[in-house]
Amino acid sequence: MNDLKPILTTLWRAKSAPLLLILQIAVTFTILVNAVYLIIQKEALLIEPSGLDEDVIFTFQTNVQSSEPEEMIALVKQDLRDIRSLSSVENVTVMNAFPLSDWGSYALTGLGPTDEDMNIYTGYYTGDEHAIDTMGLELIAGEAPTEGEVQDSIDFSANVTQAIVSKGFAERFYPDGWRAILGTTVYLNYEPYIVKGVVKELKSVWPGWYSHANTVLVPLRHISNNYKVLVRARAGDLEQAKLQVVEQLMKTPGRHLDKLMDYQQMREDKFKSETAAIKTLYWVIVGLVLLTLLGIFGQARFTIVKRRKQIGTRRALGASRGDILRYCMAENAIVTFIGIVLGVICALLANVQLVNHFDMAPVPVIYLLQVAGVILIVGQLAVCQPAWMAARVSPALATRSV
In angstroms, what CA-CA distances link 107 with 118, 190, 333? Predict the structure, then answer.
């Protein structure tokens, strides 16, 4: 603490160089805090579970060789039976959309049929009695649909009266006890549905959507000219299942298959831009840290070279190498601390703009503290070599002219 006043006096006399370093540290801190926070948010999105057993599932679209509704339904059911009979396939279902596909349906939802009751949008899935098992969903309350309860339709017009909801959906309407939703009536697009079961997790097709965790699955086998199929392979047989399914379906003349991919591929494709953004932000962080380290190192070395005679005089007056080393490290710590304080203010102002314009959550205080600690450590590491060089200045230098 005895060195504090001399350090502040020295910094005040030579304002320009310390001020530039303080500004550099403040800018680095501002960018680092928000970049780190963006990375953490994006990485959380990348690993967010969809609710499905993604390791054993793949999807595709295929056509049906008829335009007559009854015949279309019969042909699709036969396709599903053929696929289910394959040795590498555990189960299969036909759905209107899949989590992470970025294309699907939603329903205006409420606990009553009036406009005032309809207060949230919900992800909307259709599937037959095999849908829950094929996706690998965990049924945590109620019952799954039975074969007799599944309706067939080519235009969503079937009279479906039951629904399976996600736990997120149940908690949205019954926050004090989500199990209370069982047996109640919810309204989807003003139509009543009795909640028959609750699955632990099933996300919508749009990651990042405000209602991403709120979904419903209705027992409806939706069939169109190009219908969507979800296949669950047996453990370890994913690639073989793909080959067998393609071979089986292509036996039908005029058949075509589109968008055949497993869920790992779907996830990679979905988050390709986010992955690229994360890599870019990592390089920005590395570059900023290196530039700041070089800036602190260069400024410290320049200052010590300029003060060699002054340091020699202090050594001649009895200052030890440890005193000189401590002085240099303390001077750097003070400059870095001032830069961090200014950076905290700038980071908070920048985060306010991100919150207002991009609907981001405010940066938690822990991120400010962690980045501050990193910059302090980097600053001390950067000044180690110059400070050691200063400590090795000979007292005899005070008697020489420079």
Answer: 10, 9, 57
